[in-house]
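Please predict the structure of the following assembly.
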Amino acid sequence: MTDSQDSDPSRAAAAVSEARQWDRLMQLAKLGAIPGDGVNRPCLSSLDREARRLVIAWAEQAGAAVSIDAAANLFLRREGTDPSLAPVLSGSHMDSQPEGGRFDGIYGVIAGLEAITALNDAGITTRHPIEVVAWTNEEGGRFAPGCMGSMAWSGHAPLTSWSHVADQAGITFAAALAEHLACEADLPHRPLGGTPHAYLEAHIEQGPLLEAAGRDIGVVTGIQGSRWFSVTLIGASAHAGTAPVGLRRDAVQDMVRALNALNTLMHDPDDTLRFTVARIDVTPNTSNSVAGRARFTIDLRHPDAAILHAKGDAIAATVHAAIRHCEAVIEEHFTADPISFHPVVVEAVADAAAAEGLTAQRLPSGAFHDAQFVVPLAPTGMIFVPSKDGISHNPAEYSSPGQLAAGTRVLARSLVALAR
Ligand code: HGY
Ligand code: MN
Ligand code: MN
């Protein structure tokens, strides 16, 4: 076998199996399946562990070395000809939204596994090792905020920052993580952190652009900025029948006033700014007690850092000016500035798509991803495949076996090029 053959990216891409990848995704979709072809697989749950064991078994069949770190990030390592070199990292997340789809996150982990399996099948060697990673808690559904695994791994924030965060059952992140690590005590441990040679994540677009443009591949140029806040309004519960309205400190009514004011603050005629309030908790949450407390979340996104900061920094004053009878506590839980991906990785993806004869378009990501926390540490990029009707964070999320395999062929090519 000539040298070029054992490092020929086209042989790696040709060895990608659409059927094997789709079959694995459909097996994983059964773990946490919900009606409408959806998935509810919370991070650090027994379902998450069951899915990880399935992936670990496939990885071991492919000869990969499995390890986890203190944040339960899972690594599947394919050795390079020079083990001392920094690895090329690829992967995504395995946790889902409560009413998520079969592809968000998990596709990038399975695509990474499929890529290293295809390299094995094609007899490809790379100088740099290649590692596939499954990051802990990207979604932030069970424990907010998201991206805890990649933030802890990259040093963006210490793992202990979120120890006290509790899920809806009152279980803290620290307790869930400790339980999880105990269940996976048989797996080798590695230190938290690292400096990869490069990082490349395959993901579904989760938006409508590629499908509308009729493009096979998204060459992702960057990720818009995101900020997560919570607003807690503290009033006083009272009897719905006897308490005069004029004497009430009604947290729901003040929440309505705050939301109306925030909608005005966040109005964007260009529809670029993304302002979402989608989680509301009311206490005591009965129909005949005036609400003593109301807590709502804010998910704010924008591609321009100045606008993201100006609008986010105005939230507190806007809420305080709008409410009448409650105290307000505004907290920020997640701050991720807009990032641009590294030209070396962006061009590797563009070249790989062209070499595969696929149509491609450059676009920024509207969704956040673990990749954004790897950016300060190594050349980083992403590959998108189209999402049917742009739907995601919804059971109807869909990408076809062919679309997913095309993304994985581009990933396999790019990994060979980056790990050369
Ligand atoms: O919310 C996001 O952008 C990601 O899909 N978790
Ligand atoms: Mn995702
Ligand atoms: Mn998601």
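The first strand starts at residue 33 and ends at 34. The two ends are 17 Å apart (CA to CA).
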